[in-house]
Amino acid sequence: QVQVVESGGGLVQAGGSLKLSCAASGRTFSSYTMGWFRQAPGKEREFVSAIIRSGIRVSYADSVEGRFTISRDNAKNTVYLQMNSLKPEDTAVYYCAAGLRGSFSYTPRSESEYGYWGQGTQVTVSS
What we know:
Layout (H helix, E strand, L loop, with lengths): L3 E4 L2 E4 L4 E7 L8 E7 L6 E6 L6 E3 L7 E6 L4 E6 L8 E8 L16 E2 L3 E6 L1
Parallel strand pairs: 2-11
Antiparallel strand pairs: 1-3, 3-8, 4-5, 4-9, 5-6, 7-8, 9-10, 9-11
């Protein structure tokens, strides 16, 4: 079992950057695929990015490809989401999630593939 806690959200102007962090408890962090999802007001939660256990394989939603970068530090039990060139449409609550699916050829993008979730951190991008 793993618990995750997000941090790093805030208010930023369009074009700016933020770096989210997700700290996980437990000794088996390196066994989990880590994902980031987001939920904007009035919308369903959507996939943003994911990174498999070893960090070799990553995946991004089309809407953030080229602007966001996911990474992980297994020694620190932490996964990061560097967000650059932020847009007002990136405004949402960002959630970190952990799951046991994923491989060198497959990165989970569905909520149902993640069993552990954080409480979320608010990201607001002003125009």
